[in-house]
């Protein structure tokens, strides 16, 4: 008979094993993308497809609802789809969802493209890279007078936009040709940012299926033959288990730290933590917290499309604010640091993709926090300047102290205890133990003193 506590442990292990069980061979693995496509969603989908292959699944189903995302993350997902040895079906659902921008590319790259009624796709024009808020112009717009006459005169911004649009158009045309879908509309979605409803997309052969729900899509796909990695595969998904893989802790952590606002806050915590640790060594809390935060921030920034001039301005601004505590600049370094930090935060993220901007309110809040720190430092400096000095020569002269001992051979000379040290003192009149004297000057290692109270009466009783 097993003890009660051991049986409980075994039951817990069995329960954990059943919850974390992998997909059965021949299952359909379901992955979901809801929101902006970034490093976290790319990591989730790429690892999810690899896990489905290891588990022997026969189909990966990606449910999509996204306004778009980063180009690097989108291409990582598409590379995984094209290299997948099992078919991948992308399904825009539920009703009201969309596969805009990066979502359209992923839909075109998938072996199966499907949409639910009431959904839409398109608007796949690449967002201009540069100062946040800079509008993207289609090629041909923004030319001067010479451009109207056919002369080739384009600004650098127009040339860069044309390169991005042409590259994106060629990319999506290649995906459309590979999957046998409408390449003309795909290029139009890139160049003119047009969109289609689910019904129109099916009519124009942009997608393969229109399904009311997930069960309807699986019924339509049952028995279909698809080619994945050059091999024809026939789906037998009637009655096959549907396994949903939710984002794990790694994906959730990556989603948090790759938020540009969180990355900026982590950078501030990291630098200030190290600053306080170096200025007050010994506690270790600032160094540990600052080091971890700074490493996480740098890891997040290398995954994001950052402007390194913005990173440099932020670090320079924080360095100026920290230097204000040590250098007598009377606020000049601190104010300059706040200005550098604000400009750096404004240009930090080098894309206009929705969901990857830094709110102005956060920038202002962090700037005001740094300004408050500067004012606190200046306030402490002013108080310290006005406070009477209690150490050094200035702290010695004027001090009141009691005579500890008197030399027998010279009654005008003796010793006192002052500032934790033993000093030899010299008076103009004879001294006595316990007498209160005032320090009037310092001569090397000897202090000059004068009596504060009256000398004792001579003789008598």
TrEMBL record:
UniProt domain NfeD integral membrane: residue ranges: 262-377
NfeD1b N-terminal domain boundaries: 39-222
Listed Basic and acidic residues bias regions: 140-151
Organism: Pseudomonas sihuiensis
Localization terms from the record: Membrane
Any one of the GO CC terms: membrane
SUPFAM superfamilies assigned: ClpP/crotonase, NfeD domain-like
Name of the protein: Membrane-bound serine protease (ClpP class)
Transmembrane region(s): 253-275, 282-300, 306-323, 330-349, 355-378
Secretion signal span: 1-23
Residues covered by the NfeD-like C-terminal domain: 410-449
Membrane topology reported for the UniProt record: Multi-pass membrane protein
UniProt KW keywords: Hydrolase, Membrane, Protease, Signal, Transmembrane, Transmembrane helix
């Amino acid at each position: 008979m097993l003890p009660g506590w051991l049986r409980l442990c075994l039951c817990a292990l069995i329960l954990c094993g059943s919850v974390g069980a992998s997909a059965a061979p021949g299952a359909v693995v379901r992955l979901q993308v809801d929101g902006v496509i970034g490093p976290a969603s790319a990591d989730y989908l790429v690892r999810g497809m690899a896990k489905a292959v290891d588990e022997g699944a026969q189909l990966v189903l990606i449910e999509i609802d996204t306004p778009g995302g980063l180009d690097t993350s989108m291409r990582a997902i598409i590379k995984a789809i094209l290299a997948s040895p099992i078919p991948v079906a992308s399904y825009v659902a539920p009703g009201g969802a969309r596969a805009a921008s990066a979502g359209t590319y992923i839909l075109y790259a998938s072996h199966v493209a499907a949409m639910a009624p009431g959904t839409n796709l398109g608007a796949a024009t690449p967002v201009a890279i540069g100062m946040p808020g800079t509008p993207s112009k289609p090629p041909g717009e923004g030319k001067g007078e010479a451009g109207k006459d056919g002369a080739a005169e384009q600004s650098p911004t127009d040339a860069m936009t044309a390169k991005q649009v042409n590259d994106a158009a060629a990319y999506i045309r290649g995906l459309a040709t590979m999957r046998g879908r409408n390449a003309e509309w795909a290029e139009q979605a890139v160049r003119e940012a047009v969109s289609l409803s689910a019904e129109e997309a099916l009519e124009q052969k942009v997608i393969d299926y229109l399904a009311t729900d997930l069960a309807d899509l699986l019924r339509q796909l049952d028995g279909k033959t698809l080619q994945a990695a050059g091999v024809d595969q026939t789906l037998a998904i009637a009655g096959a288990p549907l396994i949903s893989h939710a984002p794990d802790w790694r994906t959730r952590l990556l989603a948090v730290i790759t938020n540009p606002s969180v990355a900026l806050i982590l950078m501030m915590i990291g630098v200030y933590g190290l600053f306080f640790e170096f200025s007050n060594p010994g506690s270790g809390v600032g160094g540990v917290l600052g080091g971890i935060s700074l490493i996480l921030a740098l890891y997040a920034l290398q995954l994001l499309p950052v402007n390194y001039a913005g990173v440099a301005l932020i670090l320079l601004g924080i360095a100026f604010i920290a230097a204000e505590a040590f250098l007598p600049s009377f606020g000049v370094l601190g104010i300059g640091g706040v200005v550098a930090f604000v400009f750096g935060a404004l240009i930090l993220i080098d894309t206009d993709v929705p969901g990857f901007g830094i709110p102005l309110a956060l920038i202002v809040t962090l700037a005001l926090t740094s300004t408050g720190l500067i004012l606190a430092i200046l306030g402490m400096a002013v108080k310290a300047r006005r406070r009477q000095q209690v150490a050094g020569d200035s702290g010695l002269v004027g001090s009141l102290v009691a005579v500890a001992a008197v030399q027998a051979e010279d009654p005008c000379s003796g010793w006192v205890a002052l500032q934790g040290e033993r000093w030899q003192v010299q008076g103009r009149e004879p001294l006595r133990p316990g007498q209160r004297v005032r320090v009037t000057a310092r001569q090397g290692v000897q202090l000059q003193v004068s009596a504060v109270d009256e000398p004792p009466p001579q003789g008598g009783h």
